[in-house]
Structures are given as structure tokens and as C-alpha cells.
Design goal:
Length: 233
């Protein structure tokens, strides 16, 4: 089943996290963008079994920490919900394994470095179909489809920065952008750094929010590179 904005909006949401304060925050964030939260509790077998009884009707917001990743709880979560829309909240980026591959049904991933306001805006974008990743070490199993093209509108951006930004707002990692554009990962890293500075973003989540919210009348396809110059003579 392909994920889309309608699927995420029409379902009832379960919030699963072992951190009590995090539970309250995540419930408030989901409710703030109009998503119906029907249950919140610890990330354990009881909660997973409860949500599984409503498979096909629910979506999952899960808070994950180092222990969840190390003891297999995150893996069990992914195995239990292979097709339900899922948003992940990583409270410790350092605990995320290098180049972790997110399951295909993950429609967005947030991190604790984002303020609550930025997290709420990022959730709104995820709900609309944008790909938002909290950290470049994460990479989507597949490219998340955006409802609009994005990231060409800022006049101060160079052509290459617009190309990089187009894919960043779709949830591509820096390595993924490099593969798409045929350049080195170091080159993309430099362009992302420039985007952060020019748009006043403190992290990747803020950057995706600013790029997507700033898009105006943009195409649905990647920016077209200019034609090659004719050979001399």
C-alpha cells in the first residue's frame, strides 16, 4: 500500500514511547495538526498488540531512544506494522546507526533538536506529503512523493543549491542527492551547509520546513539543468 497524505489524515493515531514527557508532547503535536490520537502509552508488547488489533485503521507515532534501537524494540515495531503510516521521533541522533534504512511506510522522521514550533510545522509538511528527515544519516527506503515541487524559490540560491534543495525537501539524504546529481557527497554537504546559512536554518528539519513553506508556483519535476555549451570553434 502506497503512503499518501489522505491515508495519514484519515487514520486514528497511536503514540508509542516509553518517555512520559515525550508522550504528552507528541500527542499535542499530532492534535495540533488535526490528527486524531486515540491512544498513547509505552512502546511495549501490550501497546503493539492493542494497535495491531486495529491494523489497517491506525497510524503510528513512535518515540525511539538508544535503548529502543539496541534491545530490538524498534525492530519489533517495524515488523509489527509493515504498512501502517508511521512517523518516528528520534530523541538521540548519536544512537542512530550509520546509514539506517527506514521502512517504506515511514512517512517522516523528526529529532529532538527541533523546537516544538518547528516540529509542528514539519508534521504539517509530512501530512501534506513532503519528506522530512531529522538527520542525514537516515535515508528513506523509497523517495517520498511531494504534493508540490519545492526549493527553487529563493532568489539568492544558486542553480546547484536549488537542485540540492529540491531533493532535500523530499527526504533524500546527502548521499542520495549526490547520486541523483552525479556529484560527490562532499559537494552536496557543502551546498547543504550553504543552504542552512542562507535560509537561517539550524538543522536539517528546519531547512526542510523553510524550503517547503517558501515554495511558490514550482514544477513537480526536478530542476532542469541548463543545456551544455556548444563546443568551441
Amino acid at each position: 500500500m502506497g503512503m499518501n497524505a489522505t491515508a495519514a489524515t484519515q487514520r486514528r493515531w497511536f503514540v508509542l514511547t516509553s518517555n512520559k514527557l515525550e508522550q504528552t508532547t507528541l500527542v499535542r503535536l499530532l492534535a495540533g495538526v488535526g490528527l486524531e490520537v486515540v491512544w498513547s502509552g509505552a512502546l511495549d508488547q501490550r501497546a503493539i498488540a492493542l494497535a495491531r488489533r486495529q491494523a489497517g485503521e491506525v497510524a503510528i507515532m513512535a518515540g525511539l531512544g538508544a535503548r529502543d534501537l539496541a534491545d530490538g524494540r524498534a525492530r519489533r515495531l517495524f515488523e509489527s506494522f509493515p504498512s501502517e503510516p508511521m512517523i518516528l521521533f528520534f530523541r538521540d541522533h548519536a544512537a542512530v546507526p550509520e546509514d539506517v534504512e527506514l521502512p517504506a511506510n515511514v512517512i517522516g522522521a523528526l529529532g529532538s533538536e527541533a523546537s516544538e514550533d518547528i516540529a509542528a510545522r514539519a508534521l504539517s509538511l509530512i501530512q501534506m506529503g513532503y519528506g522530512v528527515l531529522a538527520h542525514d544519516r537516515m535515508r528513506p527506503h523509497r523517495r517520498l512523493e511531494a504534493l508540490d515541487g519545492a526549493a527553487q524559490g529563493a532568489a539568492e540560491l544558486t542553480r546547484r543549491e536549488r537542485e540540492v534543495a529540491f531533493w532535500v525537501v523530499r527526504g533524500e539524504s546527502n548521499k542520495g542527492v549526490a547520486r541523483r546529481l552525479g556529484v560527490s557527497a562532499n559537494t552536496v554537504n557543502a551546498h547543504v551547509g550553504a543552504l542552512l546559512r542562507k535560509l537561517g536554518a539550524r538543522n536539517r528539519t528546519e531547512l526542510a520546513v523553510r524550503l517547503a513553506e517558501g515554495a511558490r508556483d514550482l514544477p513537480r519535476t526536478p530542476p532542469t539543468p541548463p543545456p551544455p555549451l556548444p563546443p568551441p570553434g
